[in-house]
Each structure stands twice: as structure tokens, then as C-alpha cells.
Structure of Tryptophan--tRNA ligase:
Amino acid sequence: KKRVLTGINTTGTLHIGNYVGAIRPAIQDSRNPDVESFLFLADLHALIKCQDPARIERSRMQIAATWLACGLDPERVVFYRQSDIPEIPTLNWLLSCVMSKGLLNRAHAYKAKVDAAVAAGRDPDADVSMGLFCYPVLMAADILMFNANEVPVGHDQIQHLEMAREAAQRFNNLYAPADKPFFVLPQATGGSDVEVLPGLDGRKMSKSYNNVIPLFEGGRKALDEAIARIVTDSRLPGEPKDPDSSSLAVLYQAFATAEETAAFRQELCDGLGWGDAKKRLAEKIDAEIGPMRMRYEELMAHPEKLEEILQAGAKKARAIATPFLADLMHAVGLKSFT
Ligand code: TYM
């Protein structure tokens, strides 16, 4: 069976870009009988960006509830919190010792942080935590711990996948017989531009641009309010619109069939008002996520249920990780004397 693995940082709430780009395809994939899915909450990674314990705690509950509300079946999928798998930080260390600093120096996220510090006249060595610098090593450990064949991620994560492949190759070359490598080389999938959902202003939907449509938080009201803020030109109802002049039609497309999208675009060309178009978009999105939001709210009211599901998931994950890590420890020379 093909192993597919992906994770989401638990640093805040999710938007429909996360849903369309990561959650929905991962859940669809997990229903394929030829796929073994590993989906997890990257809550150790979250500490890099967020040092507010209450926010971390809430976010991991929200994101756990989101996955389940969106249809993840914990019986079929190995669904867990990264922090519940102590084998991952241990593998992180083994990989740290075979990855070069030079490789990590090239990471986009690290370089962006250095550039920002320099631009602000600050010392980059003081601004960059070791966690941020070593982000790709921990991510490689997440992926290699379960020997994932495919990792569905957005464009921004492709470099991290290349680094994970590099780590796998280095470790295999150093420690594995040529015909019996420990790690398969993971492949990034789904990282095409089409799957990057634009936000209210047309740029990639992202918390850091403040242009998101929240997935569940704030309910239908927050959905309508966000959609009302989609940037459009000032053409009046009755005037023909260019469907590509705003992100409205692309957002519609993410929730509609090809025929529905074609019809919607035609109506814009024929003069549908922006206000009415926005109402239609909100209806379309809510038809899909409304029922999920109800399940989400139910799950959020039952943290003990979430806890039980995640602990069962951690058990399944560790049943794989514990013996595999033992093999790796032996390979590097860390084994009992007798
Ligand atoms: P994170 O939490 O930043 O993002 C989660 C996923 O959502 C995708 N995404 C989008 N897709 C389409 N359109 C958008 N506007 C959009 N915004 C975000 C991201 O590309 C990502 O796939 N490093 C990872 C978390 C991680 C991980 C891993 C992933 C940790 N370990 C191991 C895979 C395997 C991250 O930053 O995701």
C-alpha cells in the first residue's frame, strides 16, 4: 500500500485555503483502499511560531476537531499529535547529525527571517531560533518516521520535501546496505499552482496577509463578512464584469462543478451585480461546509472524545514508529551491549 502523510501546524485557526489545498484532498485520498494515510497535528513545529500556551492548546483542539468534522475517519487513518510520538524528536536528532548546516542555510523560511531582521536593523542571529533553523530536519523526521511515499503539500513546502529526500539519502548511504535502504525517498504531491487558493485580495490566502475566509470560526456570519470584503472593481449591477478581475470566480470554482462555474462566470459577464455574486458564493461554500461546521461545534464541546481519538491514533502510530526507530538506533551503533 502507498503511504500518504501530511501535517498542519497548530498555530491558529484554519481558513478555506487550508481546507481546499490540504484537508479536502487528504481526506479524499484516505478513502482510497490502496492508500494508507497518516494525518497529524504538527504541534511541536507550532512552538517555533507561537509561544502562547493557551493559543497552542486551543489551536490543536480546533484543528483536531476540524479534520474530524471534515470527514476524516479515525478508524481508517492514522491520526495523531506529533508531540505524542517521542520517536519523532529522537529521529530528528539522528537526522540532524547527517544533515549539513549548509543545506539548512538555503531554506526559504530561514532566509526570509534573516532578510526581515536585517531590513529592520536587528541581529539575525538573535532573531532566528534554533527551532526555526532546524524546521526542515523535524519535518524530515515526521515524514521518514513513517516512510511516507507521498506528501501532499502546498508549493511553499516543496523545498522541505527536497531536504527530507536529501536526509533520507544521506542516512541510507551511511548506514544501510545498498540493497536494503531504511528510508524510501518521499515525493511531494499536489503542489501545483492551481491548488493555491487566492484570498480576498487575490494574493495567496494566508493568515499573514490578513486576507482569509475562516473555515469554521465565527460561524456563517464570519463567512459572509469575509466574502463581503472580497476586492472587486466598481462596476454596477447590469454592467458586464470580467470574472477574472477578482478572486470571486476562482473561489466559487473551488466549491462548484465545472458546469456550475461556467454558468456563474457567464452570469458575471452578463452583468450579475457583485453583491449578488457574493451572496451566491457564500451560499455555495456554506452548502459544503455548513454541515461540517455543526459537527465541528459538537466536537469542540467534547474534548474528552477528541482526546480519546488522538490517544488511539498515537498508539497506532507508535506501533509503527517504535520498532522502526529501534532498527535505526541499532544501525547507528546505539544498541545494548549483549
Ligand atoms: P501549514 O500549517 O503552514 O499549512 C498546512 C497546509 O495547507 C497548505 N496551504 C494552502 N494550500 C492551498 N492554498 C492556500 N492558500 C494554502 N495555505 C496553506 C500548505 O501548503 C500546507 O500543505 N510545514 C507544514 C506542516 C508540516 C508538515 C510536516 C507537512 C510539518 N511537518 C510533514 C507535511 C509533512 C506547514 O507549514 O503547513
